[in-house]
């Protein structure tokens, strides 16, 4: 069995000069723009060169294989998305730290924590949905991973990192099955993002109620 990748590794040609890195980045950003408009199937060397305003030879120099170009575009997308994820993680643990473990043994304090978390996750989902182009890219990569073996090997990384963080959160709370609780909450958040992305406007009330019920159940409040 192949060893599972655990960190981001760029596949394209390595660059040593700043100018080369600028051109490589321009190619990757152009790739993401095309994916946001037309999907992964539209990624071709000639189309990327035109979008990035670089010679065709530049795209094939840095990315001989289209699969490497798609993989590295995904890696760039993930690196940038991790900034927002880190913000949510910090806010969640800050909310947890506002209570002692003794205080969280009382239902009223668990209820307060659940409310704080549900509101934080609602804001996060709303912000994610507002970045519609990014969500389109994310879902395009998710679909491509089902038919692209190279991409499939790395698409688990951001989800794995997020679930691990949520798992730590539930471990502190004394969950009897933190891994399952983390997987359930993460799945609900992704589904709510997708539902709101398809809707005409962000449904805060429904999103909050769904999150509260999910969190309440995991905290033993139901």
From TrEMBL:
SUPFAM superfamilies: Homeodomain-like, Tetracyclin repressor-like, C-terminal domain. Keywords: DNA-binding. GO terms for molecular function: DNA binding. Residues 21-81 form the HTH tetR-type domain. The keyword Transcription does not apply. The keyword Cytoplasm does not apply. Residues 44-63 bind DNA. It comes from the Bacteria. InterPro entries: Homeodomain-like_sf, HTH_TetR, Tet_transcr_reg_TetR-rel_C_sf. This is TetR family transcriptional regulator. The lineage of its organism: Bacteria, Pseudomonadati, Pseudomonadota, Gammaproteobacteria, Cellvibrionales.
